[in-house]
Automatic annotation (TrEMBL):
Gene Ontology terms: biological process: bacterial-type flagellum-dependent swarming motility
Example of a GO cellular component annotation carried by this entry: bacterial-type flagellum basal body
Protein family according to the UniProt entry: Belongs to the flagella basal body rod proteins family.
Keywords: Bacterial flagellum, Cell projection, Cilium, Flagellum
Domain annotation Flagellar basal-body/hook protein C-terminal: ranges: 218-262
Chief localization: other
Name of the protein in question: Flagellar basal-body rod protein FlgG
Alphabetized InterPro entries for the sequence: Flag_bb_rod_N, Flagellar_basal_body_rod_CS, Flagellar_FlgE/F/G, Flg_bb/hook_C_dom, FlgE/F/G-like, LlgE_F_G-like_D1
Domain spans labelled Flagellar hook protein FlgE/F/G-like D1: 113-174
Length: 268
């Protein structure tokens, strides 16, 4: 009986976390470069149930042999194993703003490979992002919309001295004074190894773009979120129904326990 409580409760908790992830996706449906989270559910290890007993053998000494017949497996619940970002390319939209940059994927040598802009977070550490909604701060540095420095290929902040600059298709910033600064475009063989942080940042290991990998940087464009709002709403309704189902199961167990304690166990 108590095992049923835990199984139904684990189903409610996992569906609640699933709903929270979907709600966060919908809230970021208009965030440039946002990658939707996908909740992966996994069952707890199953238990193999056996019938334990003994069988008397009609012999002179009345020997008793143990019996261990398998009954079947019992699932003990489900949990959210992890949140896996979906790195599919978002829609590219024209903004007409010179500091907006969009990374457009080309051919990647690895099926799970991906490219990112490199920025410096508040702690001075390198992070990666697909959000190219950049601007120029009061000191003339190219920064993200959270104020993080956008880095060049050498890992240094990019000084543009204003918003008048041109970015080539291969990611080189051309300034009016004739200076060319390559953007810090990072590549990872497996984007799933990156850890998602707040403010559209990813942490992990990434390096230079290898030979064979192709991409395009489009100035005056932004990559949109890859959240499918309609699909996310549908999944939210499904998760809510599953939550309600587990809730009803939990209520049925509670009513059965109440009857067993107050009615069956009562001495007339």
């Amino acid at each position: 009986m108590l095992r049923g409580f835990y199984t139904a409760a684990s189903g409610m908790i996992s569906q609640q976390r699933h709903q929270e992830a979907l709600a966060n996706n919908i809230a970021n449906a208009n965030t440039p470069g946002y990658k939707a989270d996908q909740a992966t559910l996994r069952a707890f290890p199953e238990m193999l149930m056996h019938e334990m007993g003994g069988k008397n053998i009609p012999t002179q000494n009345n020997v008793k042999f143990p019996i261990r017949n398998p009954i079947g497996s019992l699932n003990t619940g489900v949990y959210v194993d992890e949140m896996v970002p979906n790195y599919m390319q978002g829609d590219i939209r024209d903004t007409g703003i010179s500091t907006d940059l969009a990374l457009v994927n080309g051919n990647m040598p690895d099926e799970t490979g991906s490219i990112f802009f490199t920025v410096q977070n508040a702690a001075g550490e390198e992070r990666y992002t697909r959000n190219g909604n950049f601007t120029v701060d009061g000191q003339g540095y190219l920064v993200s919309n959270q104020g993080y420095y956008v880095l060049d290929q050498a890992g240094n902040p990019i000084q543009t001295d204003g918003m008048e600059f041109h970015v080539t298709d291969n990611g080189v910033i051309q300034l009016d004074g004739g200076q060319n600064i390559p953007l810090g475009i990072a590549y990872t063989e497996n984007a799933n190894d990156l850890e998602k942080e707040g403010n559209d940042l990813f942490a992990g290991e990434a390096g230079a773009v290898p030979e064979g990998a192709t991409f395009t940087v489009q100035q005056g464009f932004l990559e949109g979120s890859n959240v499918d709002a309609m699909q996310s709403m549908t999944e939210m309704m499904e998760a809510y129904r599953m939550f309600e189902t587990n809730q009803r199961v939990l209520k049925a167990y509670d009513e059965s326990m109440d009857k067993a304690v107050n009615d069956v166990g009562r001495i007339g």
